[in-house]
Specification:
The protein is mostly helical and 509 residues long. Helix content is 46%, strand content 9%. A 3-stranded antiparallel β-sheet has the order 3-4-7. Strands 1-2 form a two-stranded parallel sheet. The longest helix has 20 residues. The radius of gyration is 33 Å and the shape is elongated.
């Protein structure tokens, strides 16, 4: 007994010491749809944990349910992760020392491992038909019991099993659950105690088609891939005791488990894969920057040691330094879409500070403008000079949340001539516009700024005895075709002297 206790303590110390040096975490999605916000949060937290601890981040595809696999989903998952900046160390494309990283390519491994459980007596063959299972379920519902398998085949003799196998009867393999409840330490929620046998019968671990179920495959894979820590959604917390029983049956040391709280919509409802607006590629198509989406996620649910939260769009290096599993909230967290736009605006401002990003912006804005005004693409009237594009971006960065806002109706004037021409009925106003044009033509381009122009316009109106509000309304219409919008001086500055003069002259022929 004394030696056993010493050995157990020694193994636990080695276990902790090994995982402290070799952190290995994984993200294991099913290729049954697109990557959504909840999945990205799980991948992101695992990635940050790995990087914060000098460890490895593995992508594993859990495609044991072949009937639900979507063609191209694996490639799309990896593309979305890469776009978001979540970079894997080992994955189906890159490979690695513990592959294959797609479960459907690991069937031989699962069959080898389940043979051990059958030999140990921790698993058994179940010959129950779907019809019998349905009858058991219906009877449980009728008697107001929890519908679960009654473990009937657990008690078959070896002779009965061999007879059924000889007859070629269809069967699956189930794992024997234990009623001995052992608590586990959740990295986020603390000590958890849950008796899985109260709500479940012995679970299937190898289906009749030879494919493993999620519960069995993920235990085998996590062990063979040397996963040290498992961070996953809280919905898997009640399955953890079942997984720990499997580790015990194999004689394997389990990883440490931590469960992430639910992300909720702003109305308190659960995020759903069926919501098109929580797909990562949907945010990408909407013009959300990767870091803005990442900050949006990390802003909800805790896990970061930071100040001025929500006032800064953090870089990955900052997020890695801030990340602390002990700070993750245990309560579900609501997502507020307006915060996403705030982060996107912050990221836009940060990106514009670096001239190395200008080429990206020029290409993106050119594409947006050409798509928004295709009829102007061939006549040369679009204002897309690089200096103008960058000037517009810097000016508009405090007005917009996404780049696509640049081609909204209220900002179209910075790219194209107004479609409507002002109807100037008063001859004195026509003359005033002509005189103003001549005066602006002689202004030094270096002084063509909002402040100087504002003084100039007000002095001009006073000198010509023109009502200032009426004159500004006219100039705004001439320059932009808008009734409301930026101040005229501000509008002239962003358009530049040449474009301003062209539009003024156009108004009087």
């Amino acid at each position: 007994m004394y030696r056993t206790v010493l050995r157990t303590v020694h193994v636990e110390l080695l276990h902790k010491r090994f995982f402290k040096k070799c952190v290995r975490v994984r993200f294991a999605p099913s290729p049954t749809g697109y990557l959504h916000l909840g999945g990205l949060r799980t991948a992101l937290y695992n990635y940050l944990f790995a990087r914060a601890n000098g460890g490895s981040f593995i992508l594993r595809i859990e495609d044991t349910d072949q009937s639900r696999v979507l063609p191209g989903a694996i490639e799309k998952l990896q593309e979305d992760l890469f776009w978001a900046g979540v970079i894997t160390d080992e994955d189906p494309i890159r490979g690695g020392p513990t592959g294959p990283y797609v479960q459907s390519k690991r069937l031989e491994i699962y069959h080898e491992q389940v043979a051990k459980l059958l030999k140990y007596g921790s698993a058994y063959r179940c010959f129950c038909s779907e019809r019998r299972l349905e009858l058991v379920r219906r009877e449980a519902v009728r008697t107001k019991q929890i519908p679960k398998y009654d473990n009937r085949c657990r008690h078959l003799t070896e002779t009965e099993i061999n007879e059924k196998l000889t007859r070629g009867e269809n069967h699956c393999i189930r794992f024997k659950l234990s009623s001995d409840v052992e608590p586990f330490e959740d990295m986020v929620y603390g000590k958890i105690t849950y008796d899985v046998t109260r709500n479940e019968g012995d679970p299937v671990i190898i289906k009749a088609d030879g494919f493993p179920t999620y519960h069995f495959a993920n235990v085998v894979d996590d062990h063979l891939m040397e996963i040290s820590h498992v961070l996953r959604g809280v919905e898997w917390q009640i399955s953890t005791p079942k997984h720990l029983m499997m580790y015990k049956a194999f004689g394997w040391l389990p990883p440490q488990f931590g469960h992430l709280p639910l992300l909720l919509n702003s109305d308190g409802s659960k995020l759903s894969k069926r919501q098109g607006d929580v797909r990562v590629d949907a945010y990408r198509e909407q013009g959300i920057f990767p870091l803005a989406l990442v900050n949006y996620i990390t802003h909800a649910g805790g896990g970061f040691n930071r100040k001025n939260d929500g006032q800064h769009c953090y870089s990955y290096s900052e997020l890695i330094k801030q990340f602390d599993v002990n700070l993750i909230n245990v309560n579900s967290t609501k997502l507020w879409p307006e915060k996403l736009l705030e982060f996107n605006k912050l990221e836009l401002l940060q990106l514009l500070e670096n001239e190395k990003n200008y080429e990206f912006f020029l290409n993106k804005v050119n594409q947006l403008v050409l798509q928004a005004f295709p009829e102007r693409a061939s006549d040369g009237s679009l204002q897309l000079h690089p200096d103008h594009v960058i000037a517009v971006l810097k000016w508009a960065s405090t007005r917009i949340s996404k780049l696509s806002d640049l081609v909204a109706p209220d900002l179209a004037f910075v790219w194209v001539l107004p479609t409507c021409e002002p109807n100037i009925e008063k001859s004195e106003l026509i003359e005033a516009v002509k005189v103003l044009s001549e005066m602006l033509e002689n202004i030094d381009p270096n002084n063509f700024d909002k402040q100087s122009l504002g003084i100039c316009l007000r002095s001009f109106a006073e000198e010509k005895d023109i009502p200032f509000p009426e004159f500004m309304k006219l100039l705004r219409t001439i320059l932009s075709g808008l009734k409301d919008g930026p101040g005229v001086a501000e509008m002239m500055e962003i358009l530049g002297r040449e474009t301003t003069l062209t539009r003024l002259k156009r108004s009087f022929g």
